[in-house]
Specification:
globular; three-stranded antiparallel beta sheet; mainly beta; 36% strand
Length: 213
């Protein structure tokens, strides 16, 4: 197959699975609006310049955290480490802050900007101030300056590949025909999956489903 891919005539030049080879980390973005705290999972955080330091963070517009960051102009990016269990992804990624309080308790840890940061399963966090917002249709890209940065542990950062291979439960597909969500493992049974189908667990669309082999 590698030889075919190198052939200018025979290669599949619209194989978007190539995007899966882009390296991603996994993060919890936390925000605070008034007395409301919230957080969500994101996988698109990158340092775009270092003089001055600027961090780009992309957040889906459907997330409550997006609206809070857009309103307040502040957030914390919590860098998840490889000891984070699947329950962290369920808690911050598979439910909405509009329905549940994701950050509760007496001992909430806060950075100097007043936003919560996670007390477990992160190796560092950065407090960010939004300097510019870029509209990307379904998402917003927030270009931010760094107001605070702390290293918590030396445990390696959780990558999307590590999550897929070691953290996400293997879906139970034996004897089933249909489609499986690559993000959370939800199984949709049926020959064809509707174009507008949304995963009931992680809320991802059909682009993140693959046929059961």
């Amino acid at each position: 197959m590698d030889y075919v891919a190198m052939d200018g005539e025979k290669a599949d030049k619209n194989d978007l699975t190539a995007l899966f080879n882009i390296g991603y980390g996994l993060y919890v973005v936390t925000a605070r609006d008034g007395d409301k705290d919230n957080g969500c999972i994101v996988n698109t955080v990158s340092q775009v310049t270092n003089t001055p330091n600027r961090i780009a963070v992309c957040i889906n517009k459907k997330n409550l955290t997006h609206d809070m960051v857009a309103k307040t102009g502040t957030m914390n990016v919590n860098c998840l480490s490889t000891d984070a269990p699947f329950s962290v992804f369920e808690h911050f990624g598979f439910q909405s802050g509009r329905d549940v309080d994701k950050i509760i308790g007496e001992g909430i840890l806060r950075s100097d900007n007043g936003v919560a940061f996670l007390g477990h399963y992160i190796n560092s966090f950065m407090s960010l101030k939004v300097e510019q917002t870029v509209d990307l249709d379904t998402h917003s890209m927030f270009i931010c300056s760094v107001t605070e940065a702390r290293v918590i542990t030396d445990v390696e950062t959780m990558t999307y590949t590590y999550y897929q291979n070691n953290v996400k439960p293997k879906p139970e597909t034996d004897g089933k025909k249909g489609w499986v969500c690559k993000v959370c493992g939800y199984v949709y049974e049926g020959e064809d999956i509707p174009d507008d189908f949304i995963c009931p667990l992680c809320k991802h669309g059909v682009a993140d489903f693959e046929p059961i082999e």
